[in-house]
Known about the structure:
Structural class: mainly alpha
Number of strands: 2
Amino acid sequence: YVWSVLEGWGIPRVPPDLEFRHSLKEKATKVGEDKLYQELEEIDPVAAQRIDRRNVRRTIRALEVHRGIETPFSQLQYKKAPPFNTLIIGLTADRAELYRRIDLRVDEMIKQGLVAEVEKLMNMGYDFNMPAMSGIGYKQIGMFLNGELTLAAAIQQIKFETHRFVRHQYNWFRLKDERIQWFDIQSKLDSEITTLLAKFAKG
């Protein structure tokens, strides 16, 4: 989503087809997520290359767009220069430090009542097939509340999945990308970033 704004991507104007989406989700459950991805590879290999094969939601959207207008998803994506200047600041740290902070954050989320929060949402009727409920943390705690995992295992899974999410983020925001001004969060960087922002604001 960040790059779509910064790089001026065109977004296909194809409304969601909830019935078709549901059928694809059921298909993924029955025959496996890879089968859906293989279908996308057959009809639009360019789009398939851009989508992580584990990202079922994006795979379904690409198939949905193709079905809606019978045009490959990749052909509907284009770029145009955005009508604004940008300054991209990236925060990073060595992998061990990132993992340590993630683990501390997960432990704090549990202490702050994540289990009770998820339980309340379940009692309100929210389904774990909903995008917001399938996110990291909610999904694993839901599995705990449904008796599929112990709390300790759920917490460990949250940490593991968040570690993996961070690794994916580095695929989107690369340290070698010259458009991004990277700063190490273990350094004293307030003054450096403030100076950079002031310089950018002056043009």
